[in-house]
Specification:
By secondary structure, this protein is an alpha/beta fold. The chain is 34% helix and 27% strand. The protein has a six-stranded mixed β-sheet, with helices on both faces. A four-stranded antiparallel β-sheet has the order 2-1-4-5, with helices on one face. 42% of the residues are buried.
Length: 231
């Protein structure tokens, strides 16, 4: 479904991505691993259109989406949960979820019960302001908001960062459930190796803006991956 081909990305004169290629398929979790500052978030921002690329292609369902804006990619089924969550702190939980209606046709503008099944705390706190939730609850809200858009590609940038262990388990179960449905490709950026290893079907390890290791879970050599993830 998703094919990234030899992508370069610059911030001014600084090159953040160097010939990056990867793929992601429905029913699979593709993990992007690496230290801080190696280009993982830049790659995610490129996938969803928040940062322009200078070379290469991003192909989604066979179409080149490299030059189309974020809202157009969202309408094509690409959803993004950014690092830091970026929920609306002054809006209620319900209103935050409803912001996911933007790319949907009028008949689809409702919140699927599946989201409350995955994250029951959201249903219990619909009237609470987003900013009053704990960090873990905000992360569940950010994922729920993305799922409201009915994505076919879900891009998650470090969903376990700063989250308590019990909610990390809830997020892991949600990702596993979404993979099991078989109709969604999931790209997961992660620094928590054990979490990534449990979920990854395929993995790509980045260093200095390039992919330096890649393979499937069966071929993953933990020592090699950890070497590229340690400071």
């Amino acid at each position: 479904m998703l094919n990234v081909e030899s992508v370069d990305l610059f911030y001014g004169a600084a090159q953040a991505l160097r010939g990056v290629s990867l793929s992601a398929a429905p029913g699979k979790v593709t993990c992007v691993l690496g230290r801080n500052g190696v280009g993982k978030s830049s790659l995610m921002r490129a996938l969803v259109g928040h940062q322009p690329i200078s070379a290469g292609k991003i192909l989604w369902q066979g179409d080149d989406v490299s030059r189309i804006p974020p809202h157009a990619r969202s309408k094509r089924g690409i959803a993004y949960v950014p690092q830091g969550r970026e929920i609306f702190p002054l809006l209620s939980v319900l209103e935050n979820l409803q912001t996911g209606f933007a790319p949907l046709k009028r008949d689809d503008r409702f919140i699927p019960d599946e989201i409350y099944d995955l994250f029951p705390v959201l249903k219990d706190m619909l009237g609470r302001r987003g900013g009053d939730l704990s960090g873990g609850q905000q992360q569940q809200l950010a994922i729920g908001r993305a799922l409201v858009t009915r994505p076919k590609l879900l891009v998650l940038d470090e969903p376990t960062e700063g989250i308590q262990p019990s909610i990390i388990k809830d997020i892991g179960r949600a990702i596993d459930y979404l993979r099991g449905k078989g109709d969604m490709a999931i790209v997961l950026v992660e620094q928590y190796f054990d979490f990534a290893r449990e979920l990854a079907d395929d993995f790509f390890v980045m260093d200095r803006g390039a992919v330096v290791l890649a393979g499937n879970r069966a071929s993953m050599v933990e020592q090699d991956v950890r070497r590229h993830m340690s400071v």
